[in-house]
Specification:
Layout: H1 2-18, H2 24-47, H3 50-78
Helix pairs in contact: 2-3
């Protein structure tokens, strides 16, 4: 039982420092993917396929995290903003 704790104690700082150099687009994709995967896993669990739900939700969330802010920037440019 000691090894899983050791692995988790090693991986958490690794993940936290790995995200420090991401730009805004990468951060939004990562956040959207994580939120989508969580929601997809929950919904998929009710249907009996949490892994499929997590995969679909993660991909959709990552895409939305990248595309939606870009749409907002395009709309501002269309309306004459910077």
């Amino acid at each position: 039982m000691r090894y899983p704790r050791l692995i988790i104690a090693f991986l958490i700082p690794l993940f936290l420092t790995g995200c420090a150099s991401l730009n805004n687009t990468q951060q939004r994709a990562l956040t959207g993917g994580a939120i989508g995967a969580t929601g997809g896993a929950i919904i998929g669990a009710t249907m009996g396929a949490p892994a499929v739900g997590a995969a679909i939700g993660g991909a959709t969330g990552a895409a939305a995290g990248v595309i939606i802010p870009q749409l907002g920037h395009d709309a501002i440019r269309l309306l004459g903003g910077n």
